[in-house]
Amino acid sequence: MPEEFGPYRGKRVLDLFIVCVVGLPALAVGLLCALAVKVTSRGPVLFLQERVGMGGRPFTVFKFRTMVAGDNPIFPDASRITTAGKWLRRFSLDELPQLLNVWRGEMSIVGPRPALAYQVERYTDRQRHRLDVRPGLTGLAQVNGRNALAWEERIELDLEYVRTQSLLVDLRIIGRTLWVMLSGEGAEGHPTDDPLAAPSPEPPAAG
Distance between CA atoms of 79 and 57, rounded to whole angstroms? Predict the structure, then answer.
C-alpha cells in the first residue's frame, strides 16, 4: 500500500448531505429509541466511549446504551443486554447517535468501524492504514459479515475499502447496509478468542 491514503475528494460533502437528508427522520427514530432505553432500564440513555479516529486521534463516540448500567465487558454476557438493547443491536439503531460524530467531522457515513485504543496498539504497520480515513457508521466489513467475521478479516476488508474508496463504492455500501440492517445479518458474533479484538487484562467498558 502507498504511504498514506486519505478520504476521496467530496466525501465530506456526501457525509453532510446525508446527515441533512436523514436528520429529521433520524431524530424522530432516535427519540423513540431513547424512550425505549429509558423505560426498560435504569441509567443514562447514551453510552459514551473513547475510540480512535483518523490519523490515530482519539474521540468520543456516541451510542444508545444497550446494557445494564455499570462496568460491562467488551464481550458481554447476554444477560447484561437490556430488552431494548437487544432490538437496538438487532437493527443497529444503537449506532444512530453517531450521526452527531459524522456532523462533527469525527466520523464518516462509510468507513472502517472505530476501534478501541488497545486494539489499535496491536495493529501492524500495514493494518494502521485503516486509520487513513475517518471511521464510519457502516463499511465494507459491515456488509460482508459484520460481527461474525474475525477481526483480522474485518481489517482486511477495511484496508480494501481504504484502497478502493470512491463515491460509487460508498453509495453501493450504503445501499447494501439497508438490507443488512433489516435482515440483522451478522448482528451477533464477536469471537471472544480473537487475538486482535480480545480484551486486555483490564478492558474498558462497552455499551
Answer: 34
CA 166 to chain centre: 20
- Residue 137 near residue 103, CB atoms below 8 Å: no
For the chain, the first-to-last Cα distance in angstroms comes to 34
Closest CA to 134 of 172, 108, 104, 96: 108
Low-confidence ranges of the chain (pLDDT < 50): 202-204
Q: Write the CA distances from 54 to 114, 115, 116, 144, 153, integer angstroms.
A: 9, 11, 13, 22, 20
pTM: 0.86
Kindly report, residue by residue over 132-163, the tens digit of the pLDDT. 999 999 999 999 987 778 888 999 999 999 99
- 70 φ, ψ to 5°? 125, -175
Query: How far is it, in rounded angstroms, from Cα 32 to Cα 188?
Result: 23
For residues 59-77, b (16+ Cβ closer than 10 Å) or e, as one string?
Answer: bebbbbbbbbeeebebbbe
